[in-house]
Amino acid sequence: MRAYEFIFEYFDVQKTKQNFGDKLLLRAKTDDSVANLSVDDILQQIIDVDPTGKKGTYAQWVIKNYLNKNIMNLTDLSSVKNLLTLFDKFKNKLPIEQRDINKIHNLSSLATVVSQFKDQKTG
Fold first, then answer.
1. CA distances for 44 relative to 39, 104, 118, angstroms
2. 8, 34, 74, 108: most buried by Cβ count inside 10 Å?
3. How many CB atoms lie within 10 A of CB 3?
4. What is the mean pLDDT of residues 79-99?
């Protein structure tokens, strides 16, 4: 990793923390699966869900859905990762209007969009 890539990623995480940190902590108080996690811990769990290996490709979408309680708790993130993996692998086979994750408003809509690919290998 080049120094400028590290700096970019660092500031991206910091900006996300600045923009959503307080909201994530408030939301975490209503999440029974969270026991005194810091904002950094919550963000790391969300970033780890991203199947692309590119830090934060889907993080904003996951954060939005967690804050809106479309993702009920952080223990649901493993199923979120499975759906995002299918979406990322097969999005080029989707109709153009479904290829933008931000146009998919919740987890059940994402599940519906990728359901046609659930029996195909993602590896």
1. 8, 23, 26
2. 74
3. 7
4. 95
